[in-house]
Amino acid sequence: MILRDLSESLALGETLASLARPGDVITLSGPLGAGKTSIARGLLAALGLEGEAPSPSYAIVQPYDPPETRFPVLHVDLYRIEDPGETEELGLDDARHDALLIVEWPERLPDSAWRDALQLSLTPSPDGTRSLTAKVPEAWRARWQSI
Question: Which family is it part of (predicted)?
Fold first, then answer.
């Protein structure tokens, strides 16, 4: 899939919001500036968040709860995580049962983490577009077909 501009990244996030539910994990990979946070912002806005969602780069985990969003969401940015063991302190495995996890920089974790996650990878092109590749697990197959 090719995302031509910011509006298409936000629209993809909006579409994901219509398909996601608590217990899901959506990972967003790609270099700095690839558009990961833009997709997350579109998703959060579609779930009811008013105003622009801040990047969780420094907080690492930015929680959103009703009535701010339709259901609980944890927007996670693992960019500053150097050792995968550090993520155990965040309690993400426990939190995901009641919340949607949107995880930027999932490559900071072992490959075995969240095998059931919808894995989205963005690659910027010189013309400003983004190429999106998806690894779609069984739990997402039927939902992904509507995108």
Answer: Belongs to the TsaE family.
In DSSP terms, 100 is beta-bridged to 73
- Residue 71's domain comprises 2-144
Q: Which residues of 97-128 are buried (b: 16+ CB within 10 A; e: fewer)?
A: eebbbbbbbbebbeeebbeebbbbbbebeeee
61, 30, 90: which is closest to 9 by C-alpha? 30
Residue type, 133: T
Q: What is the CATH number of the domain that holds 8?
A: 3.40.50.300
Q: Contact 40/6 with Cβ under 8 angstroms?
A: no
Give yes or no for a contact between 120 and 133, defined as CB atoms under 8 angstroms apart.
Answer: yes
- First-to-last alpha carbon distance for the chain, in angstroms, is 10
Where are the alpha helices (H) located in 35-137, listed in sequence order? 36-46, 92-95
Separate counts of helices (H) and strands (E) for the chain:
4, 7
Domain count, the chain: 1
> In this model, does residue 138 exceed pLDDT 90?
yes
Is the whole model's pTM more than 0.85, yes or no? yes
Integer angstrom CA distances of residue 80 from 105, 106, 140? 9, 11, 28
